[in-house]
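Exam revision sheet. Question 4 asks you to relate a sequence to its structure. Input first:
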Amino acid sequence: MKKRVVVIGIGIFGFNVARNLYEHGIEVVAVDKKRESIQQVKDYCTKAILADGTDKNVIDAIGLREDDIVIVSFGEDLAASTLITLHLKQLKIKNIIVKAPNMEHMLVLESVGATEVIIPEKEMAGKVAKSIISPNILDYIPLTDDYMICEIAPPASLVGKTLADVHLRSKYHVDVIAIRDTLTDKVHMVPTNYIIKDSEVMVVIGRTKDIDQIE
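Answer key, structure tokens:
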């Protein structure tokens, strides 16, 4: 059965999530009580529903399946987010992703059944700060407080050399797991004697403080 995502609340966050998923071939159902929001998203989803997403009858009418992914985006309305999360939990939805404005809301939403809570402002702030602290790091996924996987633009000192030449593992305790060409998007998995080019990015794994030292 094709994966389906239901986005409830079509603000800036909800709209962009719906559009990105739909453009990648995912079946997307968008729900919002504002007509202008539905008009805006209708060309970027499989189905757009003009209705109050906090209404249990509306949610029941959608015919949610347990394996649907539901994204709830009600801004700072904690009561609405909590009520819909509780109802989704009662329907045994396995993946309930909720947008929250702060940590306090996150704790409440997790306690009532949200499987993942996203604080966009916090995550974006972290990425902006990281881009200033380590300008070579293009994107990253934290694994723990100490370890991460990230894409790093190779410093000039590494360009033209092989990975064996630069000794990233012995010098920085960092492993290169792939090389991605930014021009073609071609990925070379677990390269060894691959010559690093300035048009490529390295996908590395290691401790954050070690990755920050690569220069």
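Marking note for examiners. The chain has two domains: 4-119, 129-211.
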